[in-house]
Design brief:
- With 561 residues, the chain is α+β, with helices and mostly antiparallel strands.
- The chain is built from 20 helices and 14 strands.
- It has helices at 2-82, 88-97, 102-116, 159-166, 211-220, 234-238, 250-254, 257-262, 286-291, 301-313, 327-344, 348-356, 366-381, 392-400, 415-421, 460-472, 474-483, 499-507, 523-538, 543-557, and strands at residues 124-129, 134-139, 148-151, 171-175, 193-197, 227-231, 273-274, 278-280, 282-285, 317-320, 404-407, 427-430, 444-446, 449-453.
- The strands form 5 sheets. A 4-stranded mixed beta sheet has the order 10-11-9-12. It has a 3-stranded antiparallel beta sheet with strand order 1-2-3, covered by helices on one side.
- This is ABC-type glycerol-3-phosphate transport system substrate-binding protein.
- Keywords: Membrane, Transmembrane, Transmembrane helix.
- InterPro entries: Bact_solute-bd_prot1, SBP.
Amino acid sequence: MISERAGALLRSIWRRITQRLVNKLILLFTSVIILVVGSLTIISYQMIEKESVNHSIASTTNNLLLVNQNLEDYLEGMQQLALPQLRYNDIMNAVANENRDYALRMVIENYLRSMFYSRNDLEAIYLYVADRHQYYVVTRETYNVTVRKGINTDIPKLPWYQEAMKSTTNESFQSFVGARTDMGYVAPQASFMAYHRVLRSIASRHPQVDYNTILKSKIASGSTPDVFQTTAGGDIDTYADYSADLTNEPLAAAMTDAVRANMSSSDGKVLGLPVKGNLFALIYNKDLLAKAGITSPPKTIAEMQDAVTKLEAKGITPFANAYKEWWVWKHIFQHYVDAAAQDGGVEPKQLVSDFIAGKAKIKDYPVLYNNFFSFVDLTVKHGTDKPLERDSNAEVSDFASGKAAFMTGKGAWDEEAIKKINPDLKIGIMGYPVSDKAEQSVIITGADQALRINKDSEVAKETIEFFNWLYTSEYGKNWFSQVAKVIPPIKDAPLPDLEMPKEMESILKTSKSGDLSVNYSLDTFHQKFGELMQAYISGNMNKDQAVAEIEKAWVQLGSAQ
């Protein structure tokens, strides 16, 4: 009995000891597991945190490098804008003498405008002349693109000016993040920084301005060259008093009718002789049009719209443009001027004269106000990228390499350059689709450049005899096509072995050439016109603003009167 109770007691004690031991072991193992899991969690968190920090640092570093690279590229672009397009001699001479010669003032204005409209991220450009404390400015807020002029004597005292003058690279940067005090000029609110470039005149170099300025200077000083060059058309009258009368010379009789008209003054005298004949047309790639299923070149607006749709359906860019060049605009515009004159029942020469006199308005001619601007919009929207950065060479390269089907603003002079890049390219020419009248889509031929013989030259007689021989001899007739490889400006002369002149000859057998109406205005107007159209496609002007400025420029710059 006693032994049973003792055994039961021992068993009870053992169970209690065993239960407590189990509980302690469970607590121990649980604590160990918690510690392990906790440690692993902490270690993992630290590893993730470290990885995250490293990744964040790497990402931030890459972003900073990218921003820095973009900033470096941007600043490099600013440096290139200020220097490669800069003609030191021209600008320095223009700045020094613009008070005495309006043509030199135009050199400055054209220089500033060309820089301003070459990019869409510029808010203002200032040109400051240190020794005269004089500045010129054009801003994005100035919708009439007038270059303003002013005086500020405090600029040399300013920090940015002193920094630029001391810089070995002749430049300084000015941030507008902080206060906009002590600037010396008014910066548009949208701007965030200024780039200053010092342009130093090199005294040892003689100024060499543009050809027209040199020619006017030579004439004014009584040292007119024996032979000099001008544009045809309006400039024939401009230099009439200095030009020999070639009306009754054999060379005049040898000219084609269209060329002779381009060389004649308003009173009917032949006062110039052509450098070459020329051809202005919309140039196209025959193979690309065929690939898109276009069986004949478009002659109307509707047909051109259809052609654009078909080309893009085949992955072909419709237009190659060179809208960085001011002169391509006049080549396009003259096709629309011819059509507007036809619609108005007048000759193109008369219509241009009415614009110069301020009697005509672009809005009164739908071909000019609607069709021309619509065509420009079409070429920009469906053309090669960055049209204001594409110059003549870039356009030729784009077209010759098959990147685009049409090439705008050009003519026969580009064929050799095209063939050098792609000898197998099949070139076609056509008139611009200026309206819904197919008969108004015509090519334009004639001569837009003229040589002039100084009537007072001591060798005027011999010079005229030479050109009579060149324009009438068998050698001369072949020289234009075989040596110079240009379209001959004279009758009965063979064409060069090039596709565009041959196409021209074929087209003119069944249709007439358009009038070379570009000749009826001076190039001072054409250059301003090109700049205004650049402003239009860059978005700095709307159509009505551009039209108003074009009309004003036509009156101010269209003729020498």
